[in-house]
Amino acid sequence: MTVIPVALGDRSYDVRIESGLLGRAGEILATLARGRRMAIVTDANLSRHLATLQASLSTAGVDNEAIVLAPGEATKSWSVLESLTDRLLDLGIERSDHVIALGGGVIGDLVGFATAILKRGCKFVQIPTTLLAQVDSSVGGKTAINTRAGKNLIGAFHQPALVLIDPDTLDTLPARQVRAGYAEVVKYGLIDDPDFFAWCEANGAKLIAGEHDARAHAIGHSVAAKARIVVEDETETSGRRALLNLGHTFGHALEAETGFSDRLFHGEGVAAGMALAYAYSAERGLCSHEDAARVAAHLRGIGLPARLSDCGIDANGETLVGHMMHDKKMASGTLPFLLARGIGQTYLDKSVDLTAVAAFLDSANA
Ligand SMILES: NC(=O)c1ccc[n+]([C@@H]2O[C@H](COP(=O)([O-])OP(=O)(O)OC[C@H]3O[C@@H](n4cnc5c(N)ncnc54)[C@H](O)[C@@H]3O)[C@@H](O)[C@H]2O)c1
Ligand SMILES: [Zn+2]
After folding, report:
1. What distance in angstroms lies between residue 74's CA and the mean position of ligand 1's atoms?
2. Disulfide check for 137: which of 105, 107, 192, 231 has CB 3.0–4.6 Å away?
3. Alpha carbon distance, N-terminus to C-terminus of the chain
4. Per the residue annotation, which of 16, 158, 187, 252 is the catalytic one?
5. Could you tell me which residues are beta bridge partners of residue 163?
6. Minimal CA–CA distance to 339: which of 271, 265, 250, 266?
7. SS3 for 244?
8. The ligand 1 atom nearest the CA atom of 143
9. Is 206 part of the annotated catalytic residue set?
């Protein structure tokens, strides 16, 4: 078992990663249950993994109750939050109880936020089942729901008490979802770890194909990278945690243009967004065109989009920049951009001219 500590004082917790861990989770969770019934929140696509978890809890003598929600981004809503918190209150959840979030980023974000506000804060355990959730969203304590005005605009920082990652749960994840989550893996290489980007170039295809060693290495390395950044800047105040948004400002515009629909998954938007951030950095002479081409080539080689046309988007630069201005990172009329001086040399640039970005998006390089 790989154990990665997230050291945040009295909010510290461990991320445990091991193949087959779901089937053994009951023993670990029994110590948190302390003889009380545990609530598991999950979605309807996870029935097989829910059965494994419930069997494991029962064997460990932990009484449990599952709340099964509809799959999909629409579940991160006020109405589902209301019904979920009502259900949890009906179950008699107390502040010292641990609610289990079994699922992807949607379930993790929703349960994280529900438990942040339930009785002014109770505890929760993340058991992420998508690659995106295993390498990114389950660690770091960002929780949120979506509103009419946009995605993730209502939320809280609320750290989990424990994260249990069983890479074997990815065996049932559709290939397109695996690829989308892989974009967030590549992101850690591009932020500050050129050796890891080179590892991705050499091993990414194996990971996507489900090769166990490659998958385990990528998850462990990504979680360790995320934990390091979160420990340095838990609430995204110093700018360090903002590096995790590489590709997300461009990506957000692409997701908005495609209506946050299945036309473009979040990770696909991030992939194209990272390639665009590098292409824009190259155009501005910040990094070499070779580096930008290397990023695009790797993502495309995996089957991820790297250009607007790969995403089926023909909107003009002005429209896309218009979407960016609704980004919640917009402050005092400017938008901080993550740009790069090379592979693994991402930095936060607060002086980006949005007119120049729009012109770039209209150019052949985008
Ligand atoms: N909190 C954070 O730091 C953070 C970071 C990144 C993304 N997010 C959020 O995460 C969400 C996206 O997460 P996601 O990509 O995991 O999406 P998701 O939770 O919607 O899962 C994707 C799909 O896969 C299904 N699924 C999940 N695990 C499965 C499995 N093992 N086998 C078969 N099907 C499975 C789900 O039912 C769903 O249909 C977004 O709402 C995004 O805002 C949060
Ligand atoms: Zn992301």
Report:
1. 12
2. 105
3. 43
4. 252
5. 15, 126
6. 250
7. helix
8. 1
9. no
pLDDT(328) > 80: no
| Pairwise CA distance, residues 130 & 134, whole Å | 6
Pocket test for ligand 1, best of 40, 42, 80, 106 (most atoms within 8 A of CB): 106
pLDDT at 4 over 80: yes
Dig out the tokens for 152 from the structure: 């993730």
pLDDT bin (cut points 50, 70, 90) of residue 150 is confident
Pairwise pLDDT comparison (365 vs 24), residue with the higher score: 24
Q: What pLDDT is recorded for position 333?
A: 67
Tokens of 233: 């800047």
Q: Output phi, psi for 95, to 5 deg.
A: -60, -30
| Tens-place pLDDT, residues 214-236 | 999 999 999 999 999 999 999 99
- Rounded-to-integer distance, Cα 358 and Cα 318, Å: 5
> Can you give the pLDDT at residue 336?
86
If you measure from the C-alpha of residue 355 to the centroid of ligand 1, how many angstroms do you get, rounded to a whole number?
34
**Ligand 1 closest atom vs CA 136:** 5
| SS3 assignment, position 52 | helix
Q: Name the percent of the chain in helix, strand, coil, to the closest 5.
A: 55, 15, 30
Mean pLDDT over the full length of the chain: 96
Q: Of the candidates 222, 225, 230, which has an alpha carbon nearest to the alpha carbon of residue 267? A: 222
